[in-house]
Structures are given as C-alpha cells and as structure tokens.
Write a structure and sequence with these properties.
The protein is mostly beta strands. The protein has one helix and five strands; from the N terminus they run H-E-E-E-E-E.
Amino acid sequence: MRNGLIVLSLVLVGCKKTGDNQYEVVRPGLVTDTVNTPVVGTRVDTINTPTVGTKKDTIIVDKPVVGTKKTTVKVPTVKKP
C-alpha cells in the first residue's frame, strides 16, 4: 500500500500546468510531453416531452389526454484537442 502511495505521489509531481487545457508531463528518463485536455461545455437544445392531463368528458368521468410540450435542456459537449 505504501509503495502505491509513493508511486502515485511521484506521478503527480511529474505534471505541471503550462496553459489553458495544457499540461506538461515528465516521464521517466526525463522525457517531456505536452498533453492537451478536452474542453467540456454545455449547449441548450429543445426537445419534445410528453404531458399528461385530464379533460372533462361527462359529468362523472374525466378523460385522460396525452400531448407533447417543447422543453429546453442543457446538453454537455466535449471538444477533443
């Protein structure tokens, strides 16, 4: 368990943020790589959602009514580097 923690701490020490969505990684043997991380955002989309209600049919019975309604939702987007 202690060996895993030591290796994990060495891996975390070998990374450095160099800019927006860019990290510089130092691998064993002093090889340096620049890694670009993906950009995650959201966009607004419109979908049709079902709606259920009741409507008076006769004096005693309510008739179920099914329809659709437009709803806006936020959808995640990922842009790869």
